Every structure is written in structure tokens, then in C-alpha cells.
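Reopening closed ticket. The problem is back. First fold of the pair:
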Amino acid sequence: MTDVKAGVEYKINVDGNSFLLDSKKFRLLESILNTGSLTAAAKSIDVSYRTALNYIDKIESTLDVKIVSTTKGGKGGGGGTSLTEEGYSILKECKKINAIMELHKDVNEIEAEVVNVDDAKGVMTIKMHDFEVNAPLNRNYEVGDKLLALISYDNIFLMLEPQTSSIRNILKGQIVEMRLQNEVIRVKIDVGGVYLFSDITLSAEKELNLSIGKEVFVGFKAMSVATLKL
């Protein structure tokens, strides 16, 4: 089965209806796909058959879609439970989210709000705390939408002076922590009340002569900012 941490929730949207699918319900759907049995799936997540059935009923009634199909066997048995096309689509979306999370374990996560959309340039401006940055335009977003901005640690560059380059976002900050991790220096920078992390090489740390308390400029390209709508 897919490795899913407890406490993870997936916001599922179907035709305007939304449901928060927690890790246990995700594993229930995955087990139904793998075993073809609701009884076996319930056992795999350590709940009763009735509880598993209630989980399914709650998802279906909230989203107003059928996510499982049950067939009854004859005298010799042969019945089973399978995911419908909609149920499989929901499970697939959750797996895609898992894959993205696995690829981006070390990311800065910052709550933000869309404050401007520039269709011509294909970018949008999002506000994080007291500063604004550019991110790739998502045409499903509107001004006022709340987002979670994700920036990988290794996509953030540190500079002693702001430089004119292809980097679209440059912010001033102060180093508050430095740690050696797997042959790289993980630097924690306070940027106007928001903490950003950057992974840099040992040679870069030496060249920049970094130390706790030192002022630096944080830079990252607009295209390195991924966003999820909250």
C-alpha cells in the first residue's frame, strides 16, 4: 500500500461539493481497489464492516457520487466490492498529491493571498505576511483567494547584495539558524516575520562567509513557487 502519514487530509472537490478525506478513508479506498472486498478493506484499517460502510456512505452523500459498487454472489459466493470510476478518480488524485509531497519533502510552506493577476505576463502576485512575491499564474485563482505557497529549499538562493538577474523575487532577511545536514548547510532566514529555509553547499557557505545574525538577500524565481488553493 501507499505510505500515507496519519493526520493527512485530502480536500476532494466534485461538482462543487467538497469532502476532507483523511488518511484512514484513503487507505480504505486503496484496500478496496487491491482486495475487491469491503470486509477485507475494513480489516486492513482495523475498523468494523459497519464503520467502513458508514465511511463510504458519508463520502458518497457529501460528494453526491457513487464511489463503490457492490455485487452479491450466489450460493457459492463470488460477491465483492470495487471502486466506481469516480471512486478510482478520487483515489488517483490522492495518490498524485502523495507523490508531489514525497518529491517535495523539504519545502517552505507559507500561507498567502492572491492580490493581483497579470494575464498578459502569465504571473500572479501573492502576499505572504508583509511582503509580496510573483508566482506562475493559475487561471483557476482569483484575487482574494487563499493559497499555500510551496518553495523548495534548494530553489532559494542567498546573496549578500541584491542582484539584477532572472530571479523575480528578492527579499531581505536575517539568518537565525544554520545546521549541517547531509553535506549541505540548511540556513533558516527570518524574512519579515516569515521563516524561509535554504539549502546551500559548504563551498557557498564559505564563500558568502555566513553566520547567525548576518543580513542576507533571499532570491527565488517566480516559476519555483508552487501553489495549492486552501
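Second fold of the pair, where the issue appears:
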Amino acid sequence: RRQDLLCRVAGDRLVVLLPNTGERQAQGLALELQHAVQSLAHKTRQQGERLQLAATTAVVMALQESPHELLKRLNIGLARAKQPLAKSA
């Protein structure tokens, strides 16, 4: 969508800003992004290995808070979303 904004925050962390979007719709878009990344694969040059990609997503709704506080809540959400992955590995 034209009004959405994708930003690289640090390293492999990206944030998508979705103005005028409800939580349910944002969760649906996050799931679509997660599936899109999973459908990608990277092939190495040297051995031709195929590396599967994965993404962890979290949705937080902006409240009347600073960008720093919003990113803090997002990082907490991402940490929670990754916990089941760490336990099964």
C-alpha cells in the first residue's frame, strides 16, 4: 500500500509502519510478510546450497508514546514471538 513505510532499524530488524490500520488487519499483513519470506530461498555460490529464510513478526499498536517507547514494546513482542522457536530448537 502506498501509505505504508518499510524501515530497517538495525541489522536484520525491519519495521513496517501501517498508518490507519487496525490490529487484526496488521496481523494479517504480518502473516503475509512472514509467508512471503519463507517462500524465498538463497542459493550459495560456492556449493549451491539452498538456504531457507524465516521471519519472526510481532504487531504493536501505536499509543500516545515516544518512538523509543514504541520500539521498546515492539522488541518485547519480538522476543515473546521467538520464545517457542528457541524451545523447539
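Update: turned out to be a display glitch only; the data is intact. Strands lie at 5-10, 13-17, 41-43, 50-52. The mean pLDDT is 85. Please close again.
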